Each structure stands twice: as C-alpha cells, then as structure tokens.
Amino acid sequence: MAENVKNNETGAARYFKRVARFFRDCKLEIKKIVWPTPKAAFKNTGVVLVTIIVVALFVFLLDTVFMNLLGLVMDVAG
C-alpha cells in the first residue's frame, strides 16, 4: 500500500514541492524574455494601426458594394 509513496512524503508535501518547482520555472522563463526597445514598440504600433485602417476601408468598400448590389436586386424584384 505505502510502497507508492516516495521517501515517505505525504501528498501535501509532494504538492507543495510541485508548486514551488512551478514558480521556480516561471521565474526562470520570465528572465528569458527580451523586451522590445521603445523605438521598436512604436514602429510595431504604427504597423498595427495602418493595418487596421486598411482592413477597415476594405470591409467598408465591400459592404458598400454588396449593399448597392442588394438594392439593385431588391428593386428589380419589387
């Protein structure tokens, strides 16, 4: 029965060791993060904003074209 427990550790002791290892591993991973420079962050923000504007204009144009086509179809059918 008790052969499954390593080194006579209780379940709580093993749990807390796993939690401690998790936080230790998190700390090591956070140290590996390379943060962008302010210049790179500003440039990336500009790219994102321009992309959003271009996609929004494209969706607006598609919506306008399809609404006009739908208006023509509905007008012909009526």
Can you tell me about this structure?
By secondary structure, the chain is mainly alpha-helical. It folds into two domains: 1-33; 36-78. The chain is 78% helix and 0% strand. It contains two helices and no strands. The model has no long low-confidence stretch (mean pLDDT 89).
The succession of helices and strands, N to C, reads HH
Sheet of most strands? none
Outline the low-pLDDT stretches.
none
> What's the number of extended β-strand segments?
0
Question: Shape, please?
Answer: elongated
Structural class: mainly alpha
Outline of this structure?
The chain has two helices and no strands.
Key structural traits:
78 residues; 2 domains; mainly alpha
Record the SSE blueprint.
Layout: H1 11-31, H2 38-77
